[in-house]
Amino acid sequence: MVKRVLLAAPRGYCAGVERAIETVERALELYGAPIYVRRQIVHNAHVVRELEERGAVFVESETEAPIGATLVLSAHGAAPSVYEEAAARRLNAIDATCPLVTKVHAEARRYAAEGCSIVLIGHAGHDEVEGTFGEAPEAIRVVGSAAEAEALEVPDPCRVAYITQTTLSVDDTAEIVAVLKRRFPSLRGPQVDDICYATTNRQNAVKELAGEVDVLLVIGSSNSSNSNRLVEVARAAGIEAHLIDDETEIEERWLDGVETVGLTSGASAPERLVRRVCEWFRARGVTEIRTIGPRLVEDVFFRLPVELRRAATSAA
C-alpha cells in the first residue's frame, strides 16, 4: 500500500518552454486566431490541446500555413530552409526557438565555416536534431550512441568538433564524448555544455530521489526527449519508472507492494498535472506528499521573441 509520495525538485517547466508557450499566447492576443504553429510548440499533449482550443493551428510544415499568415516556430528550432520558405510565403514568422538551442545552431555554423566535420550527438528524427542538422547538412553526422561514435568515419580526423542536442542524458552523452575524445585527440567542443541546465537539474533530482522511492512516475508526453531521459536515469539507478501523460495513465499494478512513490515532471509538463497526480493519490488515502531534494532555484529567464516585442510596442 502506498504510504507516501515524494516530489522531485526541480521539476516541470524550463525557461525555454515558458517562453515558447507565452509566445503563442501573446501572438493570439496581438493578432487574433488563427495563429499557425510549426510542429508542436513544446512536446506536451496537454499544452498543445489547450492552445488549439484558444485558436492555435498546429501544422507539420510551414507550407501548410496560408500565404501571409502568422506562423510561430517551435521551441526546438528549425533549419534555415524553413525560414527561407516562410519568407517566400510572406509569413509573419515568430521565432520561439529556445535560446539554448539557438546557441547550438550558431556552434554548428561556426564549426562548418572552419572546415570541421561536426558530430551532432542526439536522437535522429527529433525536431531539435533536424533543425540543427539543417544548418550544415554536408558537414554534420548524427551520432546517438557510444557504438556509433566508435564506428564513425570522417574525412580528416584532426578537424572534428562535436555539439549536442540539449535534452540528452548527461551520463550517456559523457560516454559518447569520451569515445570521441579518444578517437579524435584534437576534438573541439562547446565552451559551455550544450545540454540544457533544466535537463541536467531534473536528471540530478531523479538521482537524488532514486534512493528514497520504490517506483518513479515521470509526467511527460511520449515524444518528450527530456521526459524519456528521466525515465532512463531512474531505471539506470535500479528504480522502476513509468512515463505518464497524466493521472489517467497510472496502472494500479505498478503500485503493488509499493510504499513510496517518486514523482517528477519533464521540462514541458505543466505543474497542474503534478497536482492532478497528487490528488489521484490523495483520493486513495495517501496523506504524506512532500517535496524532497535540493532547493535549487532556477532563475533563468528568456525575453519574448523580438518580433512579438516590436508588435506589442506598435500596438501600444
Give a description of the structure:
This protein is of the alpha/beta class and 316 residues long. The protein folds into 3 domains: 4-13 and 196-291, Cobalt-precorrin-4 Transmethylase, domain 1; 15-98 and 302-315, Rossmann fold (3-Layer(aba) Sandwich), CATH 3.40.50.11270; 100-183, 3-Layer(aba) Sandwich (Cobalt-precorrin-4 Transmethylase, domain 1). 40% of the residues lie in helices and 17% in strands. It is built from 11 helices and 12 strands. The protein has helices spanning 15-31, 45-53, 80-88, 99-113, 127-133, 146-151, 170-183, 197-210, 225-236, 271-282, 306-315, and strands spanning 4-7, 35-38, 56-59, 70-73, 92-95, 117-121, 140-143, 160-164, 215-219, 240-244, 260-265, 288-291. The strands form 3 sheets. A 5-stranded parallel beta sheet has the order 10-9-11-1-12, with helices on both faces. α2 links the parallel β2 and β3. α1 runs parallel beside α11 (306-315), α4 runs parallel beside α5 (127-133) and α8 packs parallel to α9. The N and C termini lie far apart (57 Å). The relative contact order is 0.18.
Keywords:
alpha/beta; Cobalt-precorrin-4 Transmethylase, domain 1; Rossmann fold; 3 domains; 11 helices; 12 strands; 40% helix
List the helices and strands and how they pair.
Blueprint lengths: L3 E4 L7 H17 L3 E4 L6 H9 L2 E4 L10 E4 L6 H9 L3 E4 L3 H15 L3 E5 L5 H7 L6 E4 L2 H6 L8 E5 L5 H14 L13 H14 L4 E5 L5 H12 L3 E5 L15 E6 L5 H12 L5 E4 L14 H10 L1
Parallel strand pairs: 1-11, 1-12, 2-3, 2-4, 4-5, 6-7, 6-8, 9-10, 9-11
